[in-house]
């Protein structure tokens, strides 16, 4: 009974999240944009005009993605302009098949190559491809080409106006949604961290889950960063934007703290094995913070509903008592286990401070109490896209994944349309439609999309048959067509299989309104999807395949470089102290992004055929090594940012310099500038470290005899943490070039 209740609760929670998501609100907006012109067209006896305006709105909609309103509207207008030009060209493509095919392939290549300018450009490119494919349909075929082009433009402007109105009515909605999502993902990350503490046999699955959550969290950070910084730039300083920006800053810091691993698991496992009650308390504190973040996320817009909770305070008190009890029983000047406990707890206390700051900010403190970030500093955190013409020229080669994808799509479009025409398929452009939706630059993504699209289409076709057998009411078909379309568009990013199911239902019911033989429509829809999905998979498999291992070398280079720059910023700050420079946090952001990109690239690699998973085990080892390296950097970073520290010692500078050199050597190997034989290491990293720092922390005679003050304990904690992390960083940095030498790219 309790299990069923939990399922019901989770289902209702997921439904609530779905209806509150930006995906659903955008789908509703699209539903309005598509239906109003048709209804008006019917009323004014100008259905063809209404349908063409609807087509323009649909072609503009892919660029309506999360981000600043300026970028969003610019993207919609550019997509509209491209759709107008392509539709005009498409209207004149009335040639014989053998003349048409190379022109079609060339146009497909040119339009898809626009994606070289990044994610938003790829969406504009998709609008152009969709416009070209739909120019082969019979929609508005009775109109003059220029009339059709202008009406498509009106449809795009209509959608842009609706999008702008939505923003003016609900200006805070995207910020609140993505901030809530960030809170929930951070909560998931903390919960997984808590599970990792208790797991002692096999941590691989939990580590994979942690990497996946971190990758998703980093992507959401980028979106939220763009929304917050660009909205401040456009509208100037406001209390709301400043408040949300500071909450976001706390969440970024919380991710770094959560990543921080002040001790390695082997030591914590050994200690907590003898002290299981202390493990329960540390784990309970992490779970309590995770639960609190979820509560805040659910009540972000209504903070007064957030009730005071003492769970975090209770666990804090228990851990303090545990540490005091252990300290009283210890008679050693330097007890490593005691320092381990204190450092672990210090990280959790810093996390609690961030959580408390978020709750304080949600109480809407006065403007003077909030320290607003400078615009000049925040702009540095935006990832800028290069829109220079030379980007097109530089990537015109088979080393560029986008160039190969555009070339592949052009060739497969010729084959797909040719097959459709030769075998007299009812709607050969449906094959093209399947190709542009499914084909992606990498095999793994294309394979997944092909599978989900095929299954979704079969399910949609089966459901459509069942509904047609139950009723032949055209009003029901019309309602189902609109409802299915709205659900389909809202599910594209969440569940592509479900989206394909509802797209099929929508297409079938739209055609059912236009022609009586609906079973033929279902049959051809399924057949065209199977042909398109098969061609997409074969194209990615045999035509200039872009296997992940081919780009892995460059991905690793960017990751190692980002980690090195972040390390250099940490060394610089620890040496000089003072105010935290803006480039410090920019370097941190870059390191997090690159490690997430590396993790995503590896996931794509695992989806490829076994024969193409070259050096998979080695690559996985390098991915985990880079993640652990960043975790260790986060440990040092969070400690020196949140605690007063002593001057950097000569030993610190010497070892950190060696770590930087090792990373530079790794970069040299990846750039193929350094031969693997040039950097053969004869001395073990442990020997190097102990020769510099000694086997253990050294105390002067004065320190041994004097009473142990709080200041002494703070210095001891700092020495222990910095020493342990440097030792681990050195070992990992020594291992990295060795692994890279053994990996075949």
UniProtKB/TrEMBL annotation:
<feature type="domain" description="Integral membrane bound transporter">
    <location>
        <begin position="417"/>
        <end position="537"/>
    </location>
</feature>
<protein>
    <submittedName>
        <fullName>Putative membrane protein</fullName>
    </submittedName>
</protein>
<dbReference type="GO" id="GO:0016020">
    <property type="term" value="C:membrane"/>
</dbReference>
<dbReference type="Pfam" id="PF13515">
    <property type="entry name" value="FUSC_2"/>
</dbReference>
<feature type="transmembrane region" description="Helical">
    <location>
        <begin position="458"/>
        <end position="490"/>
    </location>
</feature>
<feature type="transmembrane region" description="Helical">
    <location>
        <begin position="149"/>
        <end position="169"/>
    </location>
</feature>
<feature type="transmembrane region" description="Helical">
    <location>
        <begin position="496"/>
        <end position="514"/>
    </location>
</feature>
<feature type="transmembrane region" description="Helical">
    <location>
        <begin position="28"/>
        <end position="61"/>
    </location>
</feature>
<feature type="transmembrane region" description="Helical">
    <location>
        <begin position="526"/>
        <end position="547"/>
    </location>
</feature>
<feature type="domain" description="Integral membrane protein YccS N-terminal">
    <location>
        <begin position="77"/>
        <end position="346"/>
    </location>
</feature>
<feature type="transmembrane region" description="Helical">
    <location>
        <begin position="99"/>
        <end position="116"/>
    </location>
</feature>
<dbReference type="Pfam" id="PF12805">
    <property type="entry name" value="FUSC-like"/>
</dbReference>
<keyword id="KW-0812">Transmembrane</keyword>
<keyword id="KW-1133">Transmembrane helix</keyword>
<feature type="transmembrane region" description="Helical">
    <location>
        <begin position="406"/>
        <end position="423"/>
    </location>
</feature>
<dbReference type="InterPro" id="IPR049453">
    <property type="entry name" value="Memb_transporter_dom"/>
</dbReference>
<feature type="transmembrane region" description="Helical">
    <location>
        <begin position="429"/>
        <end position="446"/>
    </location>
</feature>
<keyword id="KW-0472">Membrane</keyword>
<feature type="transmembrane region" description="Helical">
    <location>
        <begin position="73"/>
        <end position="93"/>
    </location>
</feature>
<dbReference type="InterPro" id="IPR032692">
    <property type="entry name" value="YccS_N"/>
</dbReference>
